[in-house]
Amino acid sequence: MPSTDQTTNVMRIQRQTPWQIQKAVVFAVLIRELRTRFGRYRLGYLWAILEPISLIVILSAVRLLFGENEIAGLPFPVFFASGITAYLLFNHITTSSLYAVESNQGLFNYQRVKPFDVFFARALLELLISTSTAAIILPALYCLGFHFTINNTLLLIAVVACLFSFSFGIGLIVGIVGPLWRESQKIIPVLIRPLFFISGIFFAAGDVPENLQGLALVNPLLQATELLREALFLNYQSHEGSLFVLFCWALFTLFLGLGFYRIMGKSLITSGKIR
Question: In this structure, which of 4, 147, 162, 258 has its CB flanked by the most CB atoms within 10 Å?
């Protein structure tokens, strides 16, 4: 006969709502991904900030060759840091989603674990890493003498939410396409790489020639970078960035990604392939 405690525990599990189940699964997968990503390295979580710091140092060293201290009114290390943060968030969510199904195929043997939980946990982990590294790097730059003033906290939250939604939508799409077309796991990172040069990491949208500005602003990452700088820094005013355009991109890609998942998610659970 089962004990009273065992019966109570079973009843508690049965009373869980779908939202409570999904929340518990996402949290468990998030902790698993965190340990898998950083646990096997001696430097551990320091690797999360080494990548953006190395990029900032390299770009700053190149900028020093031109003998200029500012870009669009901002100290160039601060300018680079904000652009790199936006790009790395998108890049890491997209590339990690490519391998989400294959890396976690064994988890789908558990009825409660769905591919969406893995996609969302990986995207959420990248968001936490990006915001944490930015919260370390920007104050560190301020302490080093690169002064700036925070401009608009609400706009900052809105921009980060839109950028995360856009990145997550793209991540869902590539995460589903990956098992369908294996070559995409090689091609998609190559297609993403040029965005590093056209997403405003080391230039302001206002510096783009007028005849090319409209084409450049089609890139949602450039919109996000411009708005992120405007939200973060009082001295930076962007007349080119549009929160409405970024919101439309985020909404479109998110619904497209969810539509892909709705149609093809069951095949990912059973075989890891789209039939």
Answer: 162
Strand, helix or coil at 253? helix
Give residue 98's Cα distance to chain centre.
13
pLDDT of 152 above 80:
yes
Contact 56, 137 (CB under 8 A): yes
pTM, 2 dp? 0.87
Closest CA to 137 of 71, 194, 201, 53: 53
* Strand 70-71 to 74-75 pairing: antiparallel
Amino acid 112 reads R
- Tokens linked to 89: 């968030």
Amino acid 275: pLDDT: 45
Please state, in angstroms and rounded to a whole number, the distance separating the CA atoms of residues 267 and 274: 5
Secondary element (H or E) of residue 266 = helix 243-271
Residue the block writes with tokens 């601060």: 78
CA 114, chain centre distance (Å): 20
Q: How many CB atoms lie within 10 A of CB 76?
A: 21
Q: Which of 95, 84, 86, 81 is nearest to 37 (CA)?
A: 95
Per-residue pLDDT tens over the stretch 154-165: 999 999 999 999
Ramachandran area for residue 203 (φ above 0: left; ψ -120 to 50: alpha; else beta): beta
Examine the pLDDT at 274 and tell me if it is beyond 50. Answer: no
Q: E strand or H helix at 130, and its extent?
A: helix 115-143
Cα–Cα separations (whole angstroms), residue 257 to 39, 53, 253: 30, 32, 6
pLDDT tens digit string along 121-133?
999 999 999 999 9
User: Residue 66 in 3-state DSSP?
Assistant: coil
Radius of gyration of the chain (CA): 21
Are the C-beta atoms of residues 80 and 59 closer than 8 Å to each other? Answer: yes
Please say if the pLDDT value at position 224 is more than 90.
yes
What letter would DSSP give residue 27? Answer: H
